[in-house]
Amino acid sequence: xxxxxLFLFAVLPAVCLAQKxxxxxxxxxxxxxxxxxxxxxxxxxxxxxxxxxxxxxxAYTIVVxxxxxFSSSKTVWNTGKVASDSSVFVTYSGVALKSATRYYWRVKLxxxxxxTSAWSKPAYFExxxxxxxxxxxxxxxxxxxxxxxxxAVMLRKQFSATKKVVSARVYATxxxxxxxxxxxxxxxxxxxxPGWTEYKKRLQYQVxxxxxxxxxxxxxxxxxxxxxxxxxxxxxxxxxxFWGKNLALLCQxxxxxxxxxxxxxxxxxxxKGTQNGPVxxxxxxxxxxxxxxKEMTGWNKKGFNDAAWLPVDVANNITKNTLVxxxxxxxxxxxxxxxxxxxxSPKGTQIIDxxxxxxxxxxxxxSGPAGKTVTIRHAEVLDxxxxxxxxxxxxxxxxxxxxxxxxxxxxxxxHFTFMGFxxxxxxxxxxxxxxxxxxxxxxxxxxxVTGQFTCSDTMINKLQHNIQWGxxxxxxxxxxxxxxxxxxxxxxxxxQVFSRTAAFNMNVGPFFAKWMKDVAADQFxxxxxxxxxxxxxxxxxxxxxxxxxxxxxVPWTMYxxxxxxxxxxxxxxxxxxYVDKIINKAGDSYxxxxxxxxxxxxxxxxxxxDFSEPNGYTNPDMIATAFYAYSAKLLSQAAGAIxxxxxxxxxxxxxxxxxxxFIHNYMTPTGRIFADSQTGYVLALKFNLVPDSLKSRAAxxxxxxxxxxxxxxxxxxxxxxxxxxxxxQNGYTNVAYDLLLQKTxxxxxxxxxxGATTIWERWDGIKTDSTFQDKGMNSFNHYSYGxxxxxxxxxxxxxxxxxxxxxxxxxxxxxxxxxxxxxxTFETMYGQLLSEWEVKDGxxxxxxxxxxxxxxxxxxxxxxxxxxxxxxxxxxxASNDANGTTIQLGSGDYTFSYPWVVVKDxxxxx
Length: 910
Description:
The structure is a single chain. By secondary structure, this protein is α+β, with helices and mostly antiparallel strands. It folds into five domains: 2-127, Sandwich (Immunoglobulin-like); 135-326, Galactose-binding domain-like (Jelly Rolls); 332-445, Sandwich (Jelly Rolls); 507-515 and 545-740, Glycosyltransferase, CATH 1.50.10.10; 801-909, Maltose phosphorylase, domain 3, CATH 2.60.420.10. It is built from 15 helices and 49 strands. Strands 20, 21, 25, 26, 27, 28, 31, 32, 33 and 34 form a ten-stranded mixed β-sheet that branches. Strands 35, 40, 41, 42, 44, 45, 48 and 49 form an eight-stranded antiparallel β-sheet that branches. A hairpin with a 2-residue loop joins β13 and β14. The protein is globular and about 85 Å long. The two termini are 47 Å apart. The model is unreliable at 1-18 and 607-612 (pLDDT under 50). This is alpha-L-rhamnosidase.
């Protein structure tokens, strides 16, 4: 008994403490301890950790100060106790923030059980430079020949830190892509900075804490700049120097000394530069040539003789008015892959296989004689004979040429390029290639992984793997279409269709917030949206339905997923301008004629002389009109969300007008859709353009088409994302499963069966005889068709939004006899949401986890309340409906079980 009492006394305090809520995962503008945000009113968020069920926040207190001790004299905002359940995007409303200042903040909260948390661990955010006048540095340009393919330039400046340093920050950006160094060490771990924006209107700068890198006395700061997107070749039109033909640097090192004084080391005319360094050629498409014999040892350290370097030019003609602090996540080296095979092709090409189509570059370790050049080429696939295949790269050479200096083991990785590849071909390597000689370095925007989906079907798990890797490979500062050929552009349609799936897999809130500002910046005066953003195609102000709609669909999606009302407020003028453009084009007819340039891009079609089945073609004007209606409706809802009731009514009326015209022009009284294609039915049903009385008929016609094709799809970029959704929403989840699990072309699993490790651009990028589709447009890393991932999360495991940001959650799993289990997790702004189901021994087991400060409605499919057990006990407080049993839940971890049986390939409760 004594031992039992001692055990209880030891455990009870821990149990009591566990009941108290803890505020954790503090973020400012989505980011953990961000440095360099240039928002005067950043928004603060936190998550609540508690083991107690049904926990809601009732009040919070936030304190923001300029020191971590939160002394009253340093406090700039103390909310006091605020009665509120808000824990996401609470807007800073204290004393006006200052530039280049670190602010610490903490929060404590009161929950609905009467528990008050302790203060959270402090977090911080650091401001950037709010005003152009905060910049004391000048734009500088080293002497350069400004040719199309020239070496990277190098710059340096020696200076003295005269007193004891308390803090030091570097504020920097470039025309081109840059690397910074201080006393020989690379500053920061970002790559390909400053990223890609509409440079003439928005140029990002980065902020680095370099306090520990400064040395007493003499120091040297240096930079290398490559062509990047600013100057290099872009698109497939032999275009280069789109924003300018001269590389330039803006760099400001701000030092604060212990005595309170400050000093700025600025880029100015005292800097020196050269273009005689080792990076002799670089380009996004070209790759990189590096001659290690031209390395200048110690060029970025003190004591280097820079007598041969030339003074830089001060470029007073370059404005600072376009500078913006980074609002997205940086591009980092995320992972490394080792070779899974090293072999020679039948024709003798030395090939290394890394097992995964990826975006990044190679790190090579090599030793050999000076002057020896190793050439590395990159490819996504091998041809049917096992030979290296690069025809689909078009004019992108994607090649590394490294010339050895002959000084023992040399390690190299490129500086100013990236490639999309799984395989490399190596020529000129001295000696035998071993696995330790080559490493593939994976790079992408460093978005936190937020979602995972898995199930009992290994091919579906591989599909999910491919979807995630497609996102990794193409979310590189902007959402690109592909990472390998002479394109890699921000295609607006691709981003639009995938944005919802992207937001399940990773936290894309800040990523899209940044890119959507570039969409607005590139928007045409008449409200049209370019095909690509940044707009390097300059296609005479052309806009296409489904592509231009990114201006409306993505902000609305981000608001729904993250409860980010600011993105609606920021993008609303752009959203409205786009819809107003269509209103003007359509006129009183409400039909947007000529609005679809690309149609249902890359939809399945049989051979041109094959009339045995419909080819899936959907009328472009019908597509344009459907998207016109959808964007008008979303704009109306966005207006309502931000309190603009006049526009809410105005654009809802527009939607109703378009719907009426759509029915009149594109529907029969029997529910047939003009063109009778899968995409036609999908868009009409998804966008609520079908009268309620005809929805069941239209859905049945869609199913009829699917079944007539032996459970194959015929959709392209615009129909595919919604295909399974529409089937499930109209009672045909079994058909959606049949489509998902189809293994023959055209289907999602056909590429998986053919060995894909990412999502393909075409349904049949590699044909059944192992030959290729059109080499002019055949990417093997193209995420658009991966948009089916949204359905897998939302319907297979049932993770749906009840209120923006998952403040109220709808859990509606839809099991199938084709799986024995499925599980998904998603990290909401409130915490982790989990839903999993498993059928075993005639029992359905459903396990859910609901984050604190949210509530949920759970539908137990095909269940009868009297048969259900919750955590092993009879269920209480549930109601039966046509779909099963529905119960309202607060936060917590729950398990439900009830009898389950399969009847004629359908599932039902006993």
